[in-house]
Design goal:
It is a single chain. This protein has about 350 residues and is mainly alpha-helical. The chain has 13 helices and no strands.
């Protein structure tokens, strides 16, 4: 008689579970995130780019500073979305062995593909030079610095021999998850979101702005799942959450904030109507504190939100604010009502 291994509750590196058997559910939060993602389904082609094309071709509708800001944000996000998808599919999925979490990771990977398609759609619609846009991660120093920082933070995930079988390796996995979810998706994306949505509030590049709103809502959900994943690993492996490790993580997030603030000043040196680079930087510090609190670390910056309308952008009827908690209900993309 062959003795079956005892099933244990472990969200990562669990050899006692069959990854093909999703029921009964162990981590119901993953299932809820999956259903919320499905309810928010969208594609970029649903959004008209006609007004954006007219403004882009006009000699007077946009200032040179606004054109530069648009190009830089398209340049950053066009490759950053591919970077996040590669982390997810090639690395995170292998180590997160729980089947319902894997189901959500597959949903997230699909959404990252939609985001990648969004920037193809934007570039094609505006007639932009793809070589210029897709090489900005090499040609623009502040974009290159952000991308290289995340790549360095997630090296362990791509090592084919890496396993999470010791406390030290679990720490390394948490370190890389925080680099991917908290820093890349939770901090590095948000100055760019604020810039593009500030333009939309001025009735400029509304089509791109609406696509950024959808992306921001997806990313808020990704971030919430990532933080729940991180917190679950902490709970199941309490010995890894040492004071020294926490200090290391805080230092990483402080470095990330510096890089994102550098990008904010670089991409928007002249500011927009009524908004300047200092406010974008304050916003980065504000959201960094929210991310720290979400994974059980103390706030650093204690800044007020300079853009309260950014929270409103991610709010839907009966939905809780992602900056405060996690999603409770989405509507389908076709019935969204913008505030």
């Amino acid at each position: 008689m062959v003795t079956q291994p005892t099933k244990k509750k472990s969200i990562i590196n669990n050899s006692t579970i069959d990854p093909n058997k999703i029921l009964p559910l162990t981590y119901t939060f993953a299932r809820e995130y999956y259903k919320s993602g499905v309810a928010n389904n969208w594609t970029p082609e649903e959004i008209s780019m006609q007004q954006d094309v007219e403004q882009w071709r006009s000699r007077t509708a946009l200032t040179e500073s606004e054109r530069r800001l648009i190009l830089w944000n398209l340049g950053f996000f066009s490759t950053a979305e591919s970077l996040t998808a590669n982390n997810l599919v090639l690395a995170v999925y292998r180590h997160v062995t729980n089947p319902e979490c894997r189901q959500y990771l597959l949903r997230q990977a699909f959404e990252e593909a939609i985001h990648t398609d969004t920037f193809i759609y934007c570039c094609d619609s505006l007639g932009l030079d793809p070589d210029e846009i897709y090489n900005m991660y090499e040609t623009i120093p502040s974009i290159k610095a952000k991308d290289q920082f995340v790549v360095q933070l997630t090296t362990a995930l791509f090592d084919p021999s890496f396993v999470t079988d010791t406390p030290e390796k679990i720490q390394r996995f948490l370190h890389d998850l925080i680099g991917y979810y908290v820093i890349m998706e939770g901090i590095f994306f948000y100055a760019g979101f604020a810039m593009m949505l500030a333009l939309k509030r001025q009735k400029k590049m509304i089509g791109i702005g609406e696509q950024f709103e959808y992306i921001m809502r997806d990313e808020s959900l990704h971030l919430a799942f990532g933080c729940d994943l991180i917190n679950t690993i902490k709970t199941e492996n309490p010995t890894v959450w040492t004071p020294q490790f926490q200090e290391e993580l805080v230092a990483l997030i402080e470095k990330a904030v510096v890089l994102e603030k550098n990008y904010a000043y670089d991409a928007c040196p002249q500011g927009l109507l009524g908004i300047n680079a200092k406010q974008f930087s304050d916003y980065v510090e504000y959201i960094a504190d929210r991310r720290l609190e979400r994974i059980g670390l103390p706030k650093i910056y204690h800044k007020e939100n300079p853009f309260p309308w950014m929270s409103q952008t991610t709010d839907l009827p009966k939905e809780k604010n992602f900056f405060e908690t996690r999603v409770t209900e989405y509507q389908s993309a076709g019935s969204l009502e913008w505030e």
